[in-house]
Amino acid sequence: MTKILPLLLAALLLSALIGCAPQIPVRDTEAVSRVWSVLRPLTSETDRVTARFSLQIETPQRNGRLVGQLWGYAASLVRLDLASGTGASVAMIRETPELWLAYIPSENKAYHHPSAQAGLRLFEIPVPFNAKQIGSLLTGDLAPVLGGEYSGVQGTRDGRISFSFSEGAVTRMVASEDLQTLELTGRGGWTLTCEKPYASPAFPDRQLYDRYTFSSPRDGKAVLRVKSLEPGGDWRSSDLDLALPQDVQWMRITTKPQYN
Questions:
Q1: 172 forms bridges with which residues in the sheet?
Q2: What's residue 226's pLDDT?
Q3: Are 186 and 170 in contact (CB under 8 A)?
Q4: CB within 10 Å: which end of the chain, N or C, has fewer?
Q5: Distance between CA 93 and CA 21 in Å, rounded?
Q6: Exposed, middle or buried by CB within 10 Å (0-12, 13-18, 19+), for 197?
Q7: Does the pTM exceed 0.90?
Q8: Residue 102 — very low, low, confident or very high, per pLDDT cuts 50/70/90?
Q9: Per-residue pLDDT at 109
Q10: 191, 201 in Cβ contact below 8 A?
Q11: What residue spans of the chain are helical by DSSP H?
């Protein structure tokens, strides 16, 4: 007991010192507003987007590669088609603010749920975002992902800026002043690393990334690589509809979303 007591006191003292450690000030205060405004650009509900990407998944349940195509109005109505690496259709998804709907051709089944995150759990995809958020993320608009204003900001030892959030799915965002690195941490334990930044004349004044790595200690890892991205695309409003066979079997999802 006499040996354990000093160890406990030392642990309590270390904890107190860590808790009282001074915050690191931001090196350039003007960089805070600059970074924040770049990551939350002005958008319109009529903004159109078309994107193609690959998704490498590593989870306890599955390992493999999907290819995806996303198109629609990022603020309201989005279509998302997923296929296997061999080209076979895996799912056809239509997402609005009120309803997530997916058709599985191999099963001739249609699944629906108010929450897109609950629906995506069907495919064992460890991504905490819905199609709308993914579309916005790919076009450099993090507002739908972050959900609101930050509650605090401070510097990091390596000179980056750390934004903290008291509400929403994201708890922390760490960015370099030049936005060459960007990392998000979520309340559910997941992380998102945005890598390989690039510029596009089609999206002026926006910071775009070529690769997005999602990681969760519980659900695994997914790496999204952008193949193409354009503001608009060769599609009509009717192409956002999801035509289902008359004999489709309707299924109801009872699983609750696990990312929060």
A1: 164, 185
A2: 97
A3: yes
A4: N
A5: 48
A6: middle
A7: no
A8: very high
A9: 95
A10: no
A11: 4-19, 29-39, 116-120, 131-138, 143-146
143, 136 Cβ separation under 8 angstroms: yes
Evaluate the CA torsion angle 6, 7, 12, 16 in order and state its sign.
positive
Q: How far from 168 is each of 81, 135, 148, 181, 187, CA to CA, in Å?
A: 27, 19, 7, 22, 8
Q: How large is the average pLDDT for residues 86-113?
A: 92
**Which tokens sit at 152?**
């605090």
Based on C-alpha coordinates, what's the Rg of the chain?
21
Residue 19, number of CB atoms within 10 A of its CB: 7
Proportion of the chain in helix, strand, coil states, percent, rounded to 5:
20, 35, 45
> Any idea which residue has 């009529």 for tokens?
46
- The tokens describing 160, both together, are 């980056």
Contacts (Cβ under 8 Å, ≥6 apart) of 187: 169, 170, 171, 260
pLDDT score recorded for residue 18: 41
Structure tokens at 169: 């799915």
Q: Which amino acid is at 37?
A: S
